[in-house]
Specification:
- By secondary structure, the chain is α/β, with parallel strands linked by helices.
- The chain has 2 domains: about 10-80, no CATH class; about 90-280, Rossmann fold.
- It is about 40% helix and about 15% strand.
- The chain contains 10 helices and 10 strands.
- The longest helix has 15 residues, at about 15-30.
- It is globular.
């Protein structure tokens, strides 16, 4: 899931690895957020998008502007990878309901963690499912994000109307009980999701995916994000997820990803190969 980028002019297209590493180094030194183990190719593409959006002509100007905390927060908002759809991949959500959600009833202190709550669609999709299963007030959801502005965006729950038809179709294909329109209201070319769905969510501001990790978790939803990391960060994140999960807990990583690292086959069993849902093995 990459951002939709504007046309790239020749100057912006020529950002090299050295300049990309300069940006990463400056961000880490100034804000203690480490992008060094992200895929350089995908990180560079996000930087290209930001440079074009703010009409920045060169890397020196960009680094100077990064010195402003307000501008840096805008950059974090822009480079966070969006989900783009509610109930994206309905077959995945059907399997989550069958394999995970259906087993929550009568379980105490059920915790769910979204390590990368990028733009809110997956969080709201999960909350809608839990509400329809009469479980929303019985679980505790944690949602982590490096961008404070993105968290505020998610809390507002306002999304582009042009995606409403896709969202509604996804909802129907997930085979839920009501209709997507029951959870939204029109808002001047956009729509707003019922904010009460996430009233009980605890948002965690973090500078890395391995920081401020909740413990005693029974379900981790972390789809299609590992592909943006190198092997080092992939290993670290999977280890953090493993340590956060209780034995028997589930993790969903997305159909473009794999757990075939860190000897994960000794730590997880496959619940659904196609949808990449795994369960932590008991020790």
């Amino acid at each position: 899931m990459l951002n939709s980028f504007l046309p790239i002019d020749r100057q912006i297209e020529d950002i090299g690895i050295i300049d990309t590493k300069r940006i990463i180094s400056y961000i880490y030194t100034s804000y203690n957020i480490d992008f060094s183990n992200y895929s350089l190719t995908s990180f560079k593409r996000r930087m290209v998008f930001v440079l074009q959006k703010y009409k920045i002509k060169n890397i020196d100007e960009f680094i100077t502007r990064l010195g402003s905390r307000d501008f840096f927060e805008k950059v974090l908002f822009d480079i966070t990878v969006p989900t783009t759809e509610f109930f994206r991949d309905p077959s995945f959500w059907r399997e989550v309901i069958h394999q995970v959600i259906s087993k929550i009833d009568n379980q105490l202190n059920y915790k769910i963690w979204l390590p990368d709550c990028s733009s809110g669609e997956e969080l709201y999709s999960l909350a809608i499912i839990l509400k329809e299963e009469n479980l929303l007030d019985k679980v505790k959801i944690y949602a982590s994000n490096i961008s404070r502005e993105k968290v505020e965006f998610i809390k507002q729950g306002i999304y582009e109307e042009k995606r409403e038809d896709v969202n509604s179709a996804n909802y129907k294909r997930t085979i839920l009980k009501c209709s997507f329109e029951d959870y939204i209201k029109p808002l001047s070319g956009k729509f707003q999701v019922d904010k009460s769905l996430i009233e009980g969510v605890e948002f965690i501001h973090t500078t890395s995916f391995t920081q401020n990790v909740p413990q005693g978790v029974k379900f981790v939803l972390f789809r299609n994000t590992l592909i943006y990391f190198n092997k080092t960060l992939q290993n670290d994140v999977i280890e953090a997820i493993y340590n956060s999960l209780l034995p028997g807990g589930f993790v969903a990583i997305g159909n473009k990803e794999t757990l075939n690292i860190l000897e994960s086959e000794k730590k997880f069993k496959v619940v659904n190969e196609a949808e990449r849902i795994f369960q932590k093995l008991s020790k």
